[in-house]
């Protein structure tokens, strides 16, 4: 496992999930409090759940505080987590930032 998040190689080796609940449980067990729910939306008749895998806890906390107090979202905050999208049917999309 990449200590900064989920690498492409690790993503390719992930199980095929049958539901959002199954995928969420897998990631919560693997990453604990670093796997944070963001929001859920309806897309094409299905629920989509957005999560953040925190890769830099200190930068994430600072960025969240700044966002809450000023409404400003800085690059450091955006770089402090890896977005993970889970569909209701267990489909998965892990966002990889360019290195």
Task: Characterise the protein shown here.
By secondary structure, the chain is of the alpha+beta class. It has one domain. It has helices at 8-12, 20-31, 57-70, 75-78, and strands at 35-43, 46-54, 81-87, 92-94. A four-stranded antiparallel sheet has the order 1-2-3-4, with helices on one face. The longest helix is centred in the middle third of the chain and has 14 residues, at 57-70. The two termini are 16 Å apart. The model has no long low-confidence stretch (mean pLDDT 91).
The rounded Rg comes to 14 Å
Overall mean confidence score, pLDDT: 91
How many domains make up the coordinates? 1
Which percent range fits the helix content? 25-40%
User: In what order do the strands lie side by side in the largest sheet?
Assistant: 1-2-3-4
Q: How would you briefly describe this protein structure?
A:
The two termini are 16 Å apart.
Task: Name the descriptors.
99 residues, single chain, alpha+beta, globular, 4 strands, 4 helices, four-stranded antiparallel sheet
Helix and strand arrangement:
Layout (H helix, E strand, L loop, with lengths): L7 H5 L7 H12 L3 E9 L2 E9 L2 H14 L4 H4 L2 E7 L4 E3 L5
Antiparallel strand pairs: 1-2, 2-3, 3-4
């Amino acid at each position: 496992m990449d200590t900064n998040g989920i690498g492409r190689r690790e993503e390719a080796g992930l199980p095929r999930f049958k539901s959002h609940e199954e995928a969420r449980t897998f990631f919560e067990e693997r990453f604990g409090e670093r796997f944070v729910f963001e929001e859920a939306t309806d897309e094409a008749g299905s629920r989509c759940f957005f999560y953040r895998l925190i890769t830099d806890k200190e930068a994430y906390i600072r960025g969240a505080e700044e966002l809450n107090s000023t409404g400003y979202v800085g690059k450091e905050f955006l770089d402090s987590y890896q977005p993970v999208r889970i569909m209701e049917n267990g489909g998965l999309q892990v966002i990889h930032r360019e290195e």
